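User: Structure tokens for this complex, please. No commentary.
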Amino acid sequence: MTSVVNDAQVNGAPASDGRMRAEQEAKSRRNERIRFLLKKPSFIIGSIISLFWLACAFFGEAIAPQDPFVQDPINKLKEPYGAHWFGTDNLGRDVFSRVIVGARLIVLVALAATIISAVLGTILGLVAGYYKGKVDEVIMRTADVFMSVPTIVLALLITSSVSSKSMWVVILIIALVFTPIVARTARASVLGEAELDYVAAATLRTEKTPHILFKEVLPNVLPSLLVEFTVRLGYAIFAIATLSFLGTGVSPESPDWGTQVATHRGFLNGLNVSATLFPALAIASLSIGVNLLQDALSEAFER
Amino acid sequence: MTRFLLRRFLLAIFTLFALSVLIFFATHVLPGDVAKKILGNFADADAIKQLNKELGTDRPIPVQYANWLGDAARGDLGQSLIYQESVTSKIGTALGSSWKLALLAFVMVVPTSIFGGVVAALRRGKPSDKIITIGSLSAAVIPEFVWAVVFIVVFGVRLKWLPVSARAPDGANVFTQLKHLILPALCLVMVLFGYIARITRAGVVEALDADYTRTARLKGLSNRMVINKHVLRNALTPTIAVTATQIGYLLGGLVAVESAFGYNGFGLLLLESVKGKDFPLTQACVMFIGVVYVITTLLADVIYTLLNPRIRQAVLA
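Assistant:
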């Protein structure tokens, strides 16, 4: 007696055996991917950097050795010395603590914007790729328009006509610009899936379209969407940092890397380097961390 | 093929039309009351009314859009609000300085990134490939202004090799001007290099694995002949397309670079117009970037189609 028959007898239904085996296969594929990722240096380094800044974003005040707001005008614009590992800024505040706490704004704004665009873009992309025809045409032509101008320029255009400079304005602008681009990626991966047998089978079972899209198709395109998510996160960091450097981003009371660079770059010429350089390097490290993650993930999923 | 090109052309026209609607929406509808936006919340009600009348922003939105588009089509982009000068001449002057920076960046990045991509592909999987690929893509995700800070600190402040301002003294000769533009151009190069190198590498890798390359090798051609005649010729077509699309990006990148180095060009003009709520200038600058992007991608697609016999055939069929 073969094990297949045995299983079928135990479970009472032969159909569940197929499903169980498929689930097991999916699980072992997932485990294999995780093992592959854990062996990749780019994934390890990328994770450490990203998690470090994520921790700073949430628990910045607890991690920072000094109060980032305390001013000490006598000791302003000092290069690193003693207790001030990164020196002091133009008001004598501790640059190291301000860099730690400054992670909050950029990390949270970038994450929020990317998550919103990922959710909306995925829904639009699934619909476009599944229905094709007119819906598809409209969504893709919209993506064309948004991609014909660099993100930063579109963001500048919109900030010019919105008076409020709250965090949500920047989040919504970036999310708005990214949504059609995510939709394009989601659509591309759905187009391939929609032709596959499991979709035809689900249709024959008279499953409802939302069920087919979100329960059947979505899990299969999730890997490429995850990669797209990390790509977008990188671009969001790029755009948000640049906007705050240009002085058109969020105007925060709390420390912010781009603003720190903009405020202190005038002192570069001989007066002080650290107050500009360290926030700039913080932006660079966060960008590289996310990029390494993205690189490792795309290799793991697209093998 | 004519039909394909015609469709592609119509698509480009449509994209520009939709972009103009988007820009118009952002500058005329989003602010609510345009004059109030310009004069501030505490401005006199009569003054607001007067300015709205002058700007034509008291008329119905569709009429405003039609007027704007009509004027733009005749080459009249309106008056700048902060400079008291026509938008066209203001943009013209700014482009007059920006093209030097953009051209220098392009001249620096195109040969080096293509070379880097080819080297990476030929040494696929080896450490040098990894360094080029991961290094250049990591460089590309770092914002231009961060590169600006790093370069200013290293080459300007510490080593004192290059000037930290992009502005050369008046009447400076070409070499002095060039010296002032190297660091700003380098910032654009750092961001562009990764994209062009990656697409070049992908193209070369694909060509190396292709049947015609195996055939060429089996025919007994030397490695050099195979690479030059078969691999590179096939691989570099997608590179042309990607390189062309980066011109549009370059204009966006100018905003941060010109701001970081204090260079009075197109990017800084766009930034000033946004900060000064000079919406005729802002919308013209953004539209200009869109036009450049759409035209260059259109040209890239046409060249791509003409150069690649397989696509030419497929399109014909």
